[in-house]
Amino acid sequence: MIYGLYLSAEGAHAQDYRLNVITNNLANVDTIGFKRQLAICQARYSEPAARGLSGLGAADIENLSGGVLPAVSKTDLTPGPIKQTGSPTDFAIRGDGFFAVQKDDEVLLTRAGNFSLNSRGQLVTQFGLQQYPVLNDNLQPITLDPQLPWEVTREGTIRQAGVVQNLAVMKPVSPDDLLPVGENLYRTTQSPQPVPLAERQVAQGFLEMSAVQPTLAMVELLEASRLLEANLNMVQTQDQMLGALFNRMLRSA
Question: Which backbone phi and psi does 103 adopt, to 5 degrees?
């Protein structure tokens, strides 16, 4: 009975974790370039069960593991819909790749291409009050003269007054390398790889919108809420049964 109580508590913990991840996805349904997070749960490893039940005593049965545990969330790289804005500082990547930006002394990745030019002519991100420089292939801030015309090619090459700068378009070695760090930015556990110019598809005047599907997220939210409630009800039921058992034993003592 105590084992069942633990299993139900673990199940409630896992569903609470799912709720937090799904709620964050829904909160970013209108965030440009946002990629939804997948709440991953895994079965607890049970060594006694792996050995088989033969020869196990009562203590071994009580210590059998089981249930589920929340694991590290994963980033779903499914692209979001592309929307035309007409703004020359808006960019969207079609296919693989992320823009590289500099935050403090670190290079981070983002799919949000709603950039702007700051007072120094640097191309920067827009996320709240924070602005981070957008980098070129040499991992240096891209600087433009706002008084002069400029153009961007399909490969992400920016041309202005004879000066050529390539947007840094990079991708992680593996999707599992992406770690969200807030502000719609990602850190990679391994050095990201540049996407070759021939494989880049950068669209100026367009933005990739959030990849979160509200209807699907709401269904997942309802499912996780009901499973959480079911596990909590099981915890309460088993606690009441355990209390009744103890009272009966005390009366018979």
Answer: -120, 115
